[in-house]
Amino acid sequence: MAENVTNHLIYYVAIAKEEKDSLAILRIWDNLKIAFDDEFVWITGFTEEQIHSIEIKSLPYKSIYYSVEGNLFLKDSLLPNRRIPSLLWTPIQRALPIQLPSFNHNFFGIHEKISIHIIPSDEEKTAFAILCSLAILGNYVEKAPKIRLENLLWTIVNSSKALIVDLPLLPLNGNVYWKYQNMLIPVGYSFEFPEIALVWEKTINPDEKYWILWNIDDSYSLILKKDFEPLSISSFRKTIQNYE
Predict the structure, then answer these.
(1) Among residues 206, 181, 214, which one has the least CA distance to residue 29?
(2) CA separation for the pair 186, 76 (Å, rounded)
(3) Would the N or C end of the chain have less CB density within 10 A of its end CB?
(4) Are 15 and 62 in contact (CB under 8 A)?
């Protein structure tokens, strides 16, 4: 089992068997293991960041435990609730093969559209991308040391904006995004229903060829990953010349 390096707690999540389809969102974490008893699906192997993530918060009818000396304590409780179940644990990606879950959110009718929304969120996320004007990026690139641009990729969006992805993020004035799979979401926002967004993303972007750039009005743009190139003075100048 995965052991948290900060406080050495091992976490377990139990969810009713009839809600198993909602666990598809957790397949992004291949460190997790899953097991079944008569009533519940059990998941363990979480890191501290994962157990406090929006993915876990979105799971319906769940119980979160931490273990001490073979006992399970409900999260934020100091009283033991039950013993650790003796079950056969399987890697989550093997136990839950990829398929479209049967969500009952009235989004998947034959003649209906999937409705995806992003909403304000206080959850802290690591910034991964920034959208700024070409002028702002150009001014920075011309003065920045070469090492500061290493590992970064960029492309032009809507003829006047630059989208830069990967870390470390540049200190530019622009719109900042965090990464969820192949989707870029404005910092300060999260999906209303992350599990539905994950299924939608796999449907619209099955080959993962695109970054999906979200706006706060729920509109989005598909940006080909192959259009990105390493950020440097020469690549910036050359690309700008081609656009003139």
Answers:
(1) 181
(2) 31
(3) C
(4) yes
pLDDT digits 0-9 by tens, 56-111: 988 888 999 999 999 999 998 999 999 999 988 988 877 776 443 344 444 444 33
Among residues 196, 22, 212, the alpha carbon closest in space to that of 107 is found at 196
Among 153, 221, 159, 150, smallest CA distance to 184 is for: 221
Residue 108 identity (one-letter amino acid): F
Largest CA-CA distance found in the chain, in angstroms, rounded: 68
What would the two tokens of residue 169 be?
């993020």
Cα 13 to Cα 85: distance, rounded to the nearest angstrom: 12
Beta-sheet pairing, 220-224 with 189-191: unpaired
For the entire predicted model, the pTM comes to 0.57
Distance from C-alpha of 8 to C-alpha of 213, rounded to nearest angstrom: 37
